[in-house]
Design a protein that fits this description.
About 70% of the residues lie in helices and about 0% in strands. It is an all-alpha fold.
């Protein structure tokens, strides 16, 4: 709306806006399949972020930056220390975000190059595109049933993003703990028990970072 007021034209309108809405439609397009691809990329970018964050911590990068001869000559000690602390805290997330940007940006291009149905649907991008297209067409020009279907498609995209990325991360975390498939029912019961007694821990971050405690589900010691 602001763009329209400033430049006196819409971002998209007519057929282009309708195509955008069709791209989010749950059964007129492969939006839910593409949302699953996006969920995998979200998971993969998290792995990349974790890798670089571990490399920063265990490689003692903050100390090495502070003691780097070239940096010491060109940056004041106070700013160099701030820079090193920032890199220590945020470098992993920066690398994960950059990787995710490449994954999301080049997927559609690769799909077109190879002529295969390969693209992405991210909940944030899908919601923004839908809002732009609805404004371009005008809500009164869109049938109610079609608008509801597109809205359901956007919700489905978000659900697939979450389910795929969370499921992959959950399976990897469980594997890293040495929990076998036969122990999953007990694990689910344990998580359910904890959720009923401490639901706030699933929504709000802890005030302090507790020391991790590993208690295997099996009774072997």
């Amino acid at each position: 709306m602001g763009y329209h007021e400033i430049f006196n034209k819409q971002i998209v309108s007519g057929g282009a806006a309708l195509n955008i809405l069709n791209d989010q439609h749950p059964w007129r397009s492969a939006s839910l399949l593409y949302a699953c691809f996006t969920g995998f990329f979200l998971f993969l970018s998290g792995i990349i972020a974790g890798y670089w964050q571990n490399k920063i911590q265990y490689g003692r990068i903050r100390e090495r930056l502070i003691r780097h001869p070239a940096l010491k000559r060109t940056i004041s000690p106070k700013r160099l220390n701030k820079f090193a602390v920032y890199m220590e805290k945020h470098f992993g997330s920066l690398m994960g975000s950059i990787a995710l940007g490449f994954f999301l940006g080049f997927s559609g291009v690769l799909g077109k190059i190879f002529g295969i149905p390969f693209d992405i649907r991210h909940i944030t991008i899908a919601a923004g595109n839908t809002a732009i297209a609805v404004y371009g067409l005008g809500l009164d020009q869109i049938p109610s049933w079609f608008m509801l279907a597109v809205f359901g498609g956007v919700l489905g995209i978000g659900l697939m993003n979450f389910l795929v990325s969370f499921s992959l991360a959950f399976v990897m975390a469980v594997k890293s703990r040495g929990i076998h498939l036969s122990q999953y029912p007990r694990l689910i019961r344990t998580i359910g028990w904890y959720f009923l007694r401490h639901p706030k821990d699933f929504i709000l971050p802890p005030v302090e970072n507790p020391d991790p405690v590993f208690r295997p589900l099996n009774k072997e010691k």
